[in-house]
Write a structure and sequence with these properties.
single chain; 472 residues; Adenine-n6-DNA-methyltransferase TaqI, Chain A, domain 2; four-stranded antiparallel β-sheet; four-stranded mixed β-sheet; 32% helix
Length: 472
């Protein structure tokens, strides 16, 4: 997308910002917005007055806002953050801040709300800034990156201090121009969001197709005319008559579990030890880069090093969709260990580990796994070794297992390429969206003459996404 620059620029005096349009005024945030306004504005209201209640989960990463909850004023006025219609808010705690949680408060019950204390509130001075423009500023990449660099605290309790917001410097265009920029961004980001949604729909369809291919292969085989029999297992249905339906314990020699020492939050470099994360076997694919670096001085355990030919399964995760995910390790870099969230399933001779991995990703096995998962809602659920051993699998002869793998590998590889392309497209679209917002609110592009029906030169990522939308 090609946009003109402003005709004249000046030095902003702000190191990270550089030059800005000559007619824009550099000001700190505290001169254009009131921060965390006082609850005294509603202290005189009756305690029984219903107001909107906004927990963190009600604030989206895309500016959306869930206003389905209300509470009496008397229950929330003492311990929650005060919000009013038109205020702009953002989550100040990690990782919600980095993920972009924030919104304009619109549609509040009686024009008033109270939310989690992890929200920071900025009330726009309408003579200086519009709410729509202020929201675009706080959702921009420069604001988020600078805010992240000012965070204090440790681990999951890091927060953006209020002083950062008060002292945040930016060049502000005149209010009418702000409205034009906000309208432009609303239109263009909506287009990009629609393309992202289409790609995400495509991803879901491809995942469904992949699972359907796998499920048919591991329960029906390759011969459409083969005699069938009732498996005796609800989720398996009919299987080829010459196949055996057995508990997975009949297939396994043993199950080995890894180890999870305190590790860094980044992957290990080549030549250094790393410990696999739960997501390393997501969607039937082994990802060696999904690991955490082992600190120096911590002795690695070579007996749980991941090797080519291993069959791995995720046993525990905060995400139920990951639990029971399995992957065959065709190849791997050295010095990667199993974590205690990942099992190594060692199969007996006469069974193809690639086939077992494929079967574990099928719909019938996923249904059994879902029924076997235990653990409290919202906590890290767990799949026990005994539950794994009790899973029922339809097992063809060894030669047929290999034939099934040979026949399905090409199809699955093709689907994986399409999935990867769609995921890359989503990432590029989101990057484009972020770059567009940042360019507009820092004055790198001039959109004063923009009209909604106007067509600009489109970048390749947008054109590619529009073409791929035909798959949906």
């Amino acid at each position: 997308m090609s946009f003109p620059k402003y005709p004249e620029y000046k030095d902003s005096g702000v190191e990270w910002l550089g030059e800005v349009p000559a007619h824009w005024q550099v000001k700190r945030m505290r001169f254009v917005a009131t921060l965390n306004p006082s609850k005294s504005e509603v202290r005189h209201w009756p305690d029984t007055a219903e107001v909107s209640f906004i927990p963190m989960e009600a604030v989206g990463e895309d500016g959306s806002l869930d206003l389905t909850q209300t509470r009496p004023l008397g229950e929330v006025v003492g311990g929650y953050t005060y919000l009013s219609e038109g205020d702009v808010t953002f989550a100040k705690i990690t990782p919600c801040f980095e993920n972009g949680k924030g919104a304009i408060m619109q549609g509040l019950c009686e024009g008033v709300g109270f939310g989690t204390t992890e929200l920071t509130v900025a009330r726009p001075d309408t003579s200086q800034v519009t709410g729509g423009y202020l929201y675009r500023v706080i959702s921009s990449r420069p604001f988020r990156e600078l805010g992240e660099s000012h965070m204090y605290g440790a681990g999951g309790q890091k927060r953006v201090p209020d002083d950062f917001l008060r002292n945040f410097e930016l060049a502000w265009p005149p209010v009418p121009e702000q409205a034009s920029i906000a309208a432009f961004l609303d239109h263009e980001t909506s287009r990009i969001d629609a393309l992202v949604e289409q790609q995400q729909c495509l991803i879901e369809l491809l995942k469904e197709k992949r699972q359907a291919v796998i499920s048919h292969a591991v329960t029906k085989g390759l011969d459409p005319d083969v005699p069938m029999k009732d498996s005796g297992v609800e989720w398996l249905g009919e299987v080829p008559a010459h196949w055996n339906v057995v508990a997975l314990r009949r297939v396994l020699k043993r199950i080995e579990q890894g180890w999870s020492p305190e590790c860094f939050n980044f992957p290990a470099d080549e030549g250094a030890w790393g410990v696999l994360k739960a997501g390393a076997v997501n969607n039937g694919i082994y990802r060696e880069d999904e690991n955490k670096a082992l600190p120096e001085g911590v002795e690695p355990r070579s007996n749980i090093e991941v090797m080519a030919g291993d069959l791995l399964m995720c046993r525990a995760s905060g995400s139920p969709d990951l639990i029971g995910s399995a992957a065959y390790v065709g190849a791997t870099r050295p010095m990667i260990m199993l974590s205690d969230k990942i099992f190594r399933l060692v199969v007996r001779e006469g069974t193809c580990p690639e086939f077992v991995s494929l079967a574990l990703g099928s719909i019938p096995l996923r249904r059994q796994i879902e029924l076997s998962i235990n653990g409290a809602e919202g906590l890290a659920n767990n799949l026990s070794q005994s539950s794994i051993k009790n899973l029922k699998i339809a097992l063809p002869p060894m030669l047929e297992q290999r034939q099934i793998m040979s026949a399905t590998t090409g199809i699955l590889d093709g689907l994986k390429k399409q999935l990867d392309l769609a995921a890359d497209t989503v990432e590029l679209l989101q990057e484009r969206r972020s770059a567009l917002i940042s360019a507009a609110v820092t004055g790198k592009i001039d959109v004063r003459g923009w009209k909604a029906e106007q067509h600009f030169e489109q970048p390749e990522v947008l054109m590619a996404a529009e073409e791929r939308a035909t798959y949906v």
